[in-house]
Amino acid sequence: MFLTNVKDMFEMKKPTILLLLFLFIAIAGCSTEKVWEVSGGSRADGTVKLSYEYRLLQKPDANTYQGDDLATTKCQSWGYAGARAFGKPVEQCKDRSSDDGSCISWVVTAYYECLGDRK
Predict the structure, then answer these.
(1) Cβ atoms within 10 A of the Cβ of 93, count?
(2) Total domains present in the chain
(3) How far apart, in whole angstroms, are the C-alpha atoms of residue 90 and residue 107?
(4) Is residue 86 within 8 Å of residue 112, measured between CB atoms?
(5) Which of the residues 6, 30, 87, 115 has an alpha carbon 20 to 30 A from that of 62?
């Protein structure tokens, strides 16, 4: 009798469980558009630092061209001709869970060098 009741209970809740599973997969599988922002740099050294942040369960989608344009605009405002990325973006843990210490948010940083002689 007990097994029959458990089976009946599972059958009744099956659509709810499937819906929750579907929603979890849909949310976890979606990319989140991220916008690069100037987070540092040096006019004298001709360097620009761009960053964005993302949290657990997000799949960040940052537009490389937007970052290139932003760095170029910054360098041009300092009198340089343009900008070029150097190295690959660096991802660092920003916040950790108080439960187990696992990372729950990250900062991604890209470095650019300004091109041409400063005017």
Answers:
(1) 12
(2) 1
(3) 8
(4) yes
(5) 115
Domain assignment present for 89: yes
Rounded CA-CA distance 56/48 in Å is 27
pLDDT of 92 above 80: yes
What tokens does 58 get? Answer: 């997000």
Q: Is 48 exposed, middle or buried (0-12, 13-18, 19+ CB in 10 A)?
A: buried
pLDDT at 22: 62
Question: Do residues 94 and 113 touch, judged by C-beta distance below 8 A?
Answer: no
Within a domain: 26: no
Which two three-digit tokens encode residue 12?
């009744």
Torsion of CA 46, 64, 39, 59, to 10 degrees: -160
Q: Given a cut of 70, is residue 100 above it in pLDDT?
A: yes
∠ CA 89-95-97 to the nearest 5 degrees? 135
